[in-house]
Design a protein that fits this description.
- This protein is of the alpha/beta class.
- The chain has a domain of 245 residues: Type I PLP-dependent aspartate aminotransferase-like (Major domain) (Aspartate Aminotransferase, domain 2, 3-Layer(aba) Sandwich), CATH 3.40.640.10.
- It contains 15 helices and 13 strands.
- The chain has a 7-stranded mixed beta sheet, with helices on both faces. Strands 10-11-13-12 form a 4-stranded antiparallel beta sheet.
- Strand 12 and strand 13 form a beta hairpin.
- Helix 1 runs parallel beside helix 15 and helix 3 packs antiparallel against helix 11.
- The radius of gyration is 23 Å and the shape is globular.
- The mean pLDDT is 96.
- The structure holds pyridoxal-5'-phosphate (PLP).
- Pyridoxal-5'-phosphate (PLP) binds next to helix 5.
């Protein structure tokens, strides 16, 4: 990519990212006199109506996991009652303490705590990434303290979430990525071979984000147990769906605390827990591990200071809304939602399998990735975009996925997806010269020599986000 192509792509992205620039006032300074509150709310309504309602009709992969009007209104009321709450001030909002303790306990019991002899504990966090970062920091500090490991290493399949790379970078942990097999499951033998005296934790996903495949958690966690290292199941995506799928009779391999080698888990309440965005749960086998997550200082002139997670002040309203979502759904609500999602996903999966030019990757339950041996899938993605769809573009191999949520379970959505995908394939077949807009970027990302160029491009993209 030369400088002019770089600039051209940035310009295109600038237009896509800032659709309101031409039509609405831009504030790069605090207005001298505050605006009318009603006007502000109307402006937000206008944004929502103009560009931001696509997810509502089931056009987005993942993103909004429930999204029914009544549920949103209920979440908003729960938040509104608690919008001033900050769990940093435990004395002022004991109700938030109750909500958080119960969110953790309910999540732990859903994930097998009540079937082990061990105490499963945890904390509420701001999302899957924070849960993962905290768990990895915990293992780093635990291994330094207990085993004297000063050059820590983590072992994770190539498909484990990028948040693990982020943790490796933030906390100076060496990341050892191990391959997945032809079905996109972690290669257990490769994970075993990667263990060294510096290994602090092995990671597996239930399921992984790219292809929705559940790693062989039982085998991986046994490896970790034998080696005396931690094992983290990343159930950010599946933690609130797989337990119910299992109860519904789906074939769900063991992945939670019922496996003795699993020492920590992440499970996102703000995905299939159906809570408003901004919460997740990280869990540990035993209080000792959780203590390595906490931060406490006794020297500060500001007094004794203690926080369970990375943040200081935290939004208690989100924890309240999360608690409200969980107790309002109940087991029955979660079972019913899971049933609808899995049935819709199976219609979508069958529909994709019937398109000869496409191949479903592995044998997923509800996050369905597909590739093409003959067509540019990124061109298919562009066509789908034109039709309103927002799918996830993947690489290695080039593929797309749709993560099925309750938004897709409404009448006709799955059928519309399959019909649009068929026309996308027909279009790309009839126009073999059309390349997907992201094809060169993914091509370059696969090229070792060009990786840093793509990295610079992505940083430039984030700079764009913060342009007013
Ligand atoms: C398997 C998995 N882990 C972690 C994450 C990160 O979660 P978040 O985006 O809430 O930080 C995701 C997000 O999709 C995920 O699918």
């Amino acid at each position: 990519m030369d400088a002019s192509e770089f600039a051209r792509m940035m310009e295109e992205l600038r237009h896509a990212l800032k659709p309101y620039r031409d039509d609405f006032v831009t504030h790069d300074r605090i207005p001298e006199v505050g605006l009318d509150r009603e006007e502000i709310i109307n402006l937000m309504e206008a944004f929502k109506a103009r560009e931001e309602a696509r997810w509502k009709d089931g056009f987005a992969s993942g993103a909004v996991y429930h999204g029914d009007d009544e549920h949103i209104a209920f979440q908003n009321r729960a938040y509104a009652i608690n919008s001033q709450s900050n769990p940093l001030h435990l004395d002022l909002w004991p109700s938030t303490t109750k909500f958080e303790a119960e969110v953790v306990a309910m999540t732990a019991n859903m994930l097998g705590a009540d079937k082990t002899g061990d105490e499963i504990v945890g904390t509420v966090t701001s999302g899957g990434t924070e849960s993962i970062l905290l768990a990895m920091k915990t293992y780093r500090d635990w291994a330094r303290d207990k085993k004297g490991i000063t050059e820590p290493e983590m072992i994770a399949p190539t498909t484990a979430h990028a948040a693990f790379d982020k943790a490796a970078q933030y906390f100076n942990i060496r990341m050892i990525r191990v391959p997945v097999d032809a079905d996109f499951k972690a290669d257990v033998a490769a994970a075993g071979d990667a263990i060294t005296k510096n290994t602090i934790v092995i990671v597996g996903s239930a399921p992984q984000f790219p292809h929705g495949i559940i790693d062989p958690i039982e085998e991986l966690s046994e490896l970790a147990r034998e080696a005396g290292v931690g094992f983290h199941t990343d159930a950010c995506l599946g933690g609130f769906l797989l337990p119910w799928a299992e109860k519904l009779g789906y074939d769900v391999p063991p992945f939670d605390f019922r496996l003795p080698g699993v020492t920590s888990m992440s499970a996102d309440t703000h995905k299939y827990g159906y809570a408003a965005k901004g919460t997740s749960v990280v869990l540990y086998r035993g209080r000792e591990l959780r203590h390595y997550q906490y931060y406490v200082t006794t020297d500060w002139p500001g007094g004794l200071y203690l926080t369970p997670t990375f943040a200081g002040s935290r939004p208690g309203g989100l924890s309240a809304a999360c608690w409200a979502a969980m107790v309002a759904m109940g087991e029955q609500g979660y079972m019913e939602a899971t049933k609808r999602i899995l049935e819709t996903a199976s219609v979508i999966k069958r529909g994709i399998e019937e398109i000869p030019e496409l191949q479903v990757l592995g044998d997923p339950l509800w996050v369905i990735a597909f590739a093409s041996e003959t067509l540019d899938v990124y061109a298919i993605n562009d066509y789908m975009n034109e039709k309103g769809w927002a799918l996830n573009a993947l690489q290695k191999p080039p593929s797309l996925h749709i993560c099925v949520t309750l938004r897709h379970t409404r009448s006709g959505v799955a059928e519309r997806f399959v019909a649009d995908l068929k026309s996308a394939v027909d279009y790309v077949k009839a126009h073999p010269d059309v390349r997907g807009s992201m094809t060169p970027v993914y091509g370059m990302a696969a090229n070792v020599a060009l990786k840093s160029v793509v990295g610079d491009f992505l940083k430039g993209f984030l700079d764009l986000v913060y342009e007013v």
